[in-house]
Amino acid sequence: MKKKMKRIKLISACILFSITLLAACTGNQKQPATAQAKSAVIYTCPMHPQIMEDHTGICPICGMTLVKKSGQASEQAGISLNTVLQPVNSTVVSTVNAISPEEKSVPQSITADGYLDFDTHTFNNIASRFSGRIEKLYIKSAFQEIHRGERIFDIYSPELVTAQQDLIFLTKNSASDAVLIDAARQKLLLLGMTSAQVNQTLKTGKPFYSLPVYSPYQGHVHDVAHSQMTGAPEAKEPADPTNNLPLAIKEGMYVETGQTLFNVVNPHQLWAVIKVDQSAVTALKLKQSVTISLPDDPGKTIDGEVDFIEPTLQGGDKTTSIRVYLHNMDHSLKVNSVVKAVIQTSSATGLWIPRSAMVSLGQKKVIWLKTGSAYQAHEVFTGAINNNEVQIVKGLSATDSLAVNAQYLTDSESFIKTKSHD
C-alpha cells in the first residue's frame, strides 16, 4: 500500500512539472510576436520612397521589387520613420551645423571701376578771329603749358591789314571825323588787336603785316587733332612717351575766321568718371562719399563725393557714369589712369545670413531650414549683398535655424522643391 502511494505522488509531480514546462514554452512563443509587432516591417520602392506597403510586391510606378525598410535604427537615433521617408528633394537628414540669422544694420557700398579725365568746365578754345596765314608759331607741341597774355603765334591777315590801313587813312585825311575814326578803332579791337597794338599803329602810321596773337587763357595746350575731350580711355589715342605730340596747326598754314586752333585745359581740375552697373543705380545719391584708389599707385587713396550722375546712357553702354571732382595741384594724377571706387550708400537693416547658407536656383533663392532632426528646403527673398553676407527680406525669422552650408546639402539644384509662399 505504501509503495502504491509513493508511485501516485511521483506521477502527480511529473504531471505538474509537465504542465509548468508547457506554460513556460507557450509564454516564450508569444514574446517574439510582440517584438515583431513593435518592429513593424515596411516595404518600399528604392526609386519612389513614397510607396509604402506592409507586404512584399512590386512598385506600381516603376515595377521594381519592393524592399524592406525598418525605422527602428532611426527611432533609436531620435529620427522618426516619417522623417526618413520624406522626399530627398525637399528634406535632408544631416548633422551639418545650424546657425541663426543675425538682425543688424550693415553699411552698404557700391564697387565700380572708372578712369580719370579732364574737367570740361576748364576747357577753353582759342579760335581765329580772322582768316590769314600763320607766320610764326610759338606753341611747339601738345600739352605745352602757357599763361594768360603769352604770345602763341603771329598771323598775316589781308583783312586785318586793310582795317588798319582804313584807320590810318581816316586819322590822316579826316581827323575831325571822330565818329568814323572811333568806329575803325573799335573794329580792330573786335578783330583781336590789343589797345597797345592799335595805338602803335596810329603812332607809327604803319599796319602790322604779321600780327602777334596772345593767349587769353592759362593751362595746357591741347591741339584739336589730339584733344583729350573724347571720353573713355579706349577711345583716346595712346600717349606719346615724350609728351611731344605734333601739332596739326603748322607755320605757313591758312586758317579761317572762327576756326578752333587749340584747346586750353586747366590740369589742376580732373574728373573721376565711374561706371556703375544699372542694378545699383537706384542706391546712388548726390554727395555720397567716394573712396578712389589707383591700381598703378598702391596704397594711395583719394576721398571725394558724388558730384554728378549722368541721366543718360552713352553709345549703348549698360552702365551709368558718375563724376567725382578732384584737385590735381601737384600734377600727380594722370588723365586716362584706371581707378577703382567704393561708393558709400545708405545702411541696410534686417536679417543677415552668410552667402554660403543660401543656394541660388536662378530666380529662386533657397535655404535649408532646420525642422527637428532634419533640414527642409525653404525659399527666401533676398535684398542687399555685403561681401559674404546676404540680407533676407522675406521667408525667414530671427528665431529660425538653418544650415550653415546650403551647397553641402544640395544634391541636385534642379530637383529642389520648396513650398510656395502665400
Q: Mind describing the biggest β-sheet? A: 7 strands, antiparallel
**Rg, alpha carbons:** 46 Å
Number of helices: 7
Structural class: alpha+beta
Look at the structure and give the mean pLDDT: 78
The end-to-end span amounts to 97 Å
Q: Approximately how much beta-strand content do the residues carry?
A: 25-35%
The geometry reads as rod-shaped
Low-confidence parts lasting 5 or more residues at pLDDT below 50? 24-39, 72-79, 226-243
Q: Say how many strands there are.
A: 27
Estimate the helix proportion, in percent: 10-25%
Structure description:
- The chain has 422 residues and is α+β, with helices and mostly antiparallel strands.
- A hairpin with a 2-residue loop joins strand 25 and strand 26.
- Mean pLDDT is 78; it is low at 24-39, 72-79 and 226-243.
- Strands 4, 6, 22, 23, 24, 25 and 26 form a 7-stranded antiparallel beta sheet that branches. Strands 18-17-21-7-16-20-19 form a 7-stranded antiparallel beta sheet, with no helix packed on it.
- Helix content is 21%, strand content 33%.
- The chain is rod-shaped, with a radius of gyration of 46 Å.
- Helix 4 (158-173) packs antiparallel against helix 5 (178-190).
Summary of the model, kept short:
The chain is an alpha+beta fold. It has helices spanning 2-38, 72-76, 81-84, 158-173, 178-190, 195-204, 406-409, and strands at residues 42-44, 52-53, 67-69, 91-93, 98-99, 102-106, 109-118, 124-127, 132-137, 145-146, 151-156, 211-214, 219-223, 254-255, 260-265, 269-277, 289-293, 301-305, 308-309, 319-327, 338-344, 348-354, 359-361, 364-371, 374-386, 389-394, 402-403.
